Amino acid sequence: MKIIKKFESKKNKVLLVQSPDGSLFVKKIFANSQSCRNELQSLLALDGKCAPKVLGGGENFIDMEYIEGCLFLDAFLSADTEQMSSLAQSLWGFFKDYARTFKGYVPADVNFRNFILRQGKCYGVDFEEKIQGSLALCVAKAAAFALLYDTDENKKKAFCHALISLAGFSPYQLKAMVDKEVNFLILRRNNR
Q: Is the pLDDT of residue 39 over 80?
């Protein structure tokens, strides 16, 4: 096996590996075994719908399918205002797939770094934690992240408006939730 690339991760070691037959896969080595078990359980339940397929694993690592694509954050930052609607649609598709699998739960962290965009479909790559919540909470968390990224305000507004509309809400319905999530993220960043 040959390590091709190391991906950015705060808690874990995530590697793009080439096997002897030339195929590529991702090896995620976890800081603790409970996080590994949580992620494995989620990946198996999602079964490749909106996440990598599991290829193997052990006590503290998972080997998974390599989904070649663009980091959702990079797509978000480089897209123009007109492209925000299609990006919102991709992320909304992920949220719906996730909610169908884990009724009443949402991913704990919807940082745009945790998603890969490939041919218009959004795949999640961080499933260590899930929390009880609704699709409204998912949308509020994603809008909060969008609003705090360093990019054009019109792009941020277009993305948030599109995502909230796709979810069937009005911006007024989610304003308090989005504000709460923005404040939480700001506080978390200031405490690092």
A: yes
**Neighbour order of strands in the sheet with 121-124:** 70-71, 115-118, 121-124
Average pLDDT for residues 35-47, to the nearest whole number?
96
Rounded CA separation 72/58 (Å): 28
What pLDDT, in 10s, does the model give residues 3-18? 999 998 888 999 999 9
The DSSP output letter for 173 is H
Query: Which pLDDT value is given to residue 192?
Result: 64
Please provide the DSSP assignment of 116-143 as one string: EEETTEEEE---S-EEE--HHHHHHHHH
106-138 per-residue burial string, b: 16 or more CB within 10 A, e: under 16: bbebbbbbbbbbeeeebbbbbbbebeebebbbb
Using CA atoms, how far residue 1 sits from 15, 22, 143, 170, in Å, is 11, 9, 40, 50
Helix-, strand-, coil-residue percentages of the chain, each rounded to 5: 50, 20, 30
Task: Show the 3-state SS of 44-72.
Answer: HHHCCCCCCCEEEECCCEEEEECCCCEEH
Chain mean position to CA 8: 14
Model confidence, pTM: 0.92
Whole-number Å distance between alpha carbons of 84 and 160: 9
Q: Give the Cα separation of 169 and 4 in Å (integer).
A: 43
Give the pLDDT score at 172: 80
